[in-house]
Amino acid sequence: MIGTKAHGEEILERNFFGFPSLVVNGKSFVILFEDQLVFSLDERSAAKALALSAAEMWNPYGRKKKHWIQLPESQSSRWQEFLILAIEKSFQGEE
């Protein structure tokens, strides 16, 4: 996915909170955390993700991150869906 484009912007790899992440439009939208993916989602998508089994708000270093939702490998069949939503959020100007 690195080097591909979304809305004409190149997807890059950077560290975010010390973890590998993908960035587009200057914003991290997904983080690799252990064997899980953490997605930056808008409020509606975050609520949808949190309704899934074993999903939780990401809590790096004991600080919960609003709208950063951690989905375990058991939910990997849904990762692509939330990846697309996270990319879209990167272009909505939300934090």
Quick overview of this protein structure:
This protein is an alpha+beta fold and 95 residues long. The chain contains two helices and eight strands. It starts with a strand and ends in a 5-residue tail after the last helix.
Task: Outline the structure in words.
This protein is α+β, with helices and mostly antiparallel strands and 95 residues long. The mean pLDDT is 90. The strands form 2 sheets. A 6-stranded antiparallel β-sheet has the order 3-4-5-6-8-7. It has a two-stranded antiparallel ribbon with strand order 1-2. Strand 4 and strand 5 (27-33) form a beta hairpin. The protein starts with a strand and ends in a 5-residue tail after the last helix. The chain has one domain: Yope Regulator, Chain: A. The protein is built from 2 helices and 8 strands; from the N terminus they run E-E-E-E-E-E-H-E-E-H.
Produce the secondary structure layout.
Elements: E1 5-6, E2 9-10, E3 12-16, E4 19-24, E5 27-33, E6 36-40, H1 43-50, E7 56-57, E8 68-71, H2 79-90
Antiparallel strand pairs: 1-2, 3-4, 4-5, 5-6, 6-8, 7-8
